[in-house]
Write a structure and sequence with these properties.
The protein is mainly beta and 69 residues long. The protein has a domain of 41 residues. It has no helices and three strands. A three-stranded antiparallel sheet has the order 1-2-3, with no helix packed on it. A hairpin with a 5-residue loop joins β2 and β3. The chain is rod-shaped and about 80 Å long. The protein binds zinc ion.
Length: 69
Amino acid sequence: MGVRRAAVERVEPAPEKAEEVGAGKEGREPACPWCGSPEAEKVSDYGPHLMVCQYICRGCNSPFEVIKR
Ligand SMILES: [Zn+2]
């Protein structure tokens, strides 16, 4: 007599829904990586790289790039 395992337990990974809050909202300025100021102005939609936006900080006037997602 043996124990028959008829069913194999299957653990399905729950798909994580990454719902973006406020998706589609234009002009979401990121914070400056240098001084942390949220006042950043977009200077270019396309930087030297395709997926990069160029910003300039109004606080310290330092340019920085933000990778688009
Ligand atoms: Zn800054």
